[in-house]
């Protein structure tokens, strides 16, 4: 009973976003009252009520995790966002920037002076600075490079040299290495002298004097083994070794398949370069999933929820223009059969059924294929088997749903031939949807494009035009 009550309390407790929104509303309410009274702005700033409001906001923000602050910033309009951003402590700026989306990050960076940006990077590791580098002005990056020690400077340069979809871009240089000829007691003493362990440390990397990876010492093994035991006696050969040029998606699949917390990154000579951790992999998977969802809808990039109107229009216009062209083509297909529609008005009311079900079926196929491509489950030899399988599924679905639609059409219009045409059109349009649902993403990947890019828009356009043409052609042949 107590556990149930605690759960209810947690559900009813205000979220950080709701708390910030409430305090912002109080602040803006007082501000509006002061303006109505034509009170000077200095008086507003000196108001004890406003000082109290700002102090409550500051106290709340100081207690929040950078990820929570980032979530709040993304949910606020620009004016409120910049007010909250100005209240975030300087030592947290870098962490918050890392947690925000690219679109929101650009608005925050635009509001910051060069010295503020440089100061924000002082609290970040080199791999984290590399994540921010594409969004920072070049003069800021030049100053950041000059401020780093030589070793970290080389690490940053190396991290920035890898493409976004490579393991090297996910690599963390903060690793703990040990030798295989020391006792576990020595390792424990060494760890106790550290200020803190790197995040997500589940294993220590065993290297020789040339930094070549020999194996790993699991932390749980270190804790339960005899302190007098040598590292070489309890270390294990690491199952997964990544290389910086490997595709990041393959690394993500390995983390999921083997339940990894961390994995080493080595060069061609087995020299340890760094590691990849599960938190970085999760961020990569989330970003990739969001990007695929946007691409399926025809959006070219992630969009700030409160972006300026023109910027949002620019992000969306390309596929809207393409959609307009395809819609015009569909309308012309209908126009070709105007005489048929005039003779049998029922055709106009039945066309959307064929196109709608075909579009939905095609989107189901495309979603499955895009996911399979992301997980690297499709190769050249399996592509034809997949096409054959999807054709089989579409035939079965076409027969089932086509028969149902045909019977309903007969019941409504008392026309057996029209019902038969509906059944045939449904089967053929689902076949078209299945075939293109496989071929569109496979073709996009073959030409080096994202398989999800506009796939949903394209399949809908094809099934609309194709469905109209198939249905009206059959009706013209068999009914008129």
Based on CA atoms alone, the radius of gyration comes out at 30 Å
- Biggest beta sheet attributes: 3 strands, mixed
- Number of E strands: 6
Q: Averaging pLDDT over every residue, what do you get?
A: 86
Outline of the structure:
This protein has 480 residues and is mainly α.
Write a structural description.
- The protein is mostly helical and 480 residues long.
- The chain has 3 domains: 12-169, MgtE N-terminal fold (Alpha Horseshoe); 177-277, CBS-domain (Roll); 309-479, Tetracycline Repressor, domain 2 (Orthogonal Bundle), CATH 1.10.357.20.
- It is built from 24 helices and 6 strands.
- The strands form 2 sheets. The chain has a 3-stranded mixed beta sheet. The protein has a 3-stranded mixed beta sheet with strand order 4-5-6.
- A hairpin with a 5-residue loop joins β5 (262-266) and β6 (272-277).
- α9 crosses α11 (138-147), α10 (126-132) packs across α12 and α21 runs parallel beside α23 (416-446).
- The protein is globular and about 90 Å long.
- The model has no long low-confidence stretch (mean pLDDT 86).
């Amino acid at each position: 009973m107590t556990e149930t009550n605690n759960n209810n309390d947690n559900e009813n407790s205000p979220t950080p976003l709701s708390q910030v929104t409430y305090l912002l509303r109080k602040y803006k309410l007082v501000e509006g009252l002061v303006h109505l009274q034509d009170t000077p702005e200095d008086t507003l700033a000196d108001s004890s009520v406003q000082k109290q409001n700002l102090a409550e906001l500051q106290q709340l923000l100081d207690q929040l995790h950078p990820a929570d602050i980032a979530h709040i910033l993304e949910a606020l309009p620009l004016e409120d966002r910049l007010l909250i951003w100005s209240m975030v402590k300087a030592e947290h700026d870098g962490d918050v920037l890392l947690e925000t989306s690219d679109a929101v990050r650009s608005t925050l960076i635009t509001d910051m002076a060069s010295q503020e940006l440089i100061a924000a990077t002082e609290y970040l590791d080199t791999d984290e600075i590399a994540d921010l580098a594409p969004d920072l002005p070049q003069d800021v990056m030049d100053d950041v490079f000059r401020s780093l020690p030589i070793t970290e400077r080389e690490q940053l340069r190396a991290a920035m040299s890898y493409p976004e979809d490579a393991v090297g871009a996910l690599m963390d240089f903060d690793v703990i290495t040990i030798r295989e000829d020391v006792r576990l007691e020595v390792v424990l003493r060494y760890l106790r002298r550290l200020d803190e362990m790197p995040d997500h440390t589940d294993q220590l990397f065993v290297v020789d004097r040339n930094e070549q990876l020999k194996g790993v010492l699991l932390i749980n093994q270190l804790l339960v083994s005899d302190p007098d035991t040598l590292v070489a006696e309890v270390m294990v050969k690491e199952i997964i070794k990544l290389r910086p040029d490997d595709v990041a998606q393959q690394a993500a699949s390995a983390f999921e398949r083997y339940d990894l917390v961390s994995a080493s990154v080595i060069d061609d000579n087995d020299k340890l370069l760094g590691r990849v951790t599960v938190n970085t992999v999760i961020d990569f998977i989330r970003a990739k999933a969001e990007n695929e969802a946007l691409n399926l809808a025809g959006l070219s990039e992630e969009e700030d929820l409160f972006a300026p109107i023109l910027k949002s229009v620019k992000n969306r216009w390309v596929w809207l223009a393409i959609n307009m062209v395809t819609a015009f083509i569909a309308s012309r297909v209908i126009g070709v059969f105007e005489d048929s529609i005039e003779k049998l008005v029922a055709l106009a009311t039945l066309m959307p059924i064929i196109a709608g079900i075909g579009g939905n079926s095609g989107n189901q196929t495309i979603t499955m294929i895009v996911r399979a491509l992301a997980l690297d489950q499709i190769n050249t030899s399996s592509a034809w088997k997949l096409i054959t399988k999807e054709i089989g599924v579409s035939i079965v679905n076409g027969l089932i749903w086509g028969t149902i639609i045909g019977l309903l059409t007969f019941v409504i219009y008392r026309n057996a031939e029209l019902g038969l045409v509906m059944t045939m059109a449904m089967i053929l349009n689902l076949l078209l949807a299945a075939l293109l649902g496989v071929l569109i993403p496979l073709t996009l990947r073959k030409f080096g494009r994202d398989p999800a890019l506009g796939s949903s828009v394209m399949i809908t356009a094809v099934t609309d035009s194709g469905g109209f043409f198939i249905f009206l052609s059959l009706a013209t042949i068999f009914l008129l």
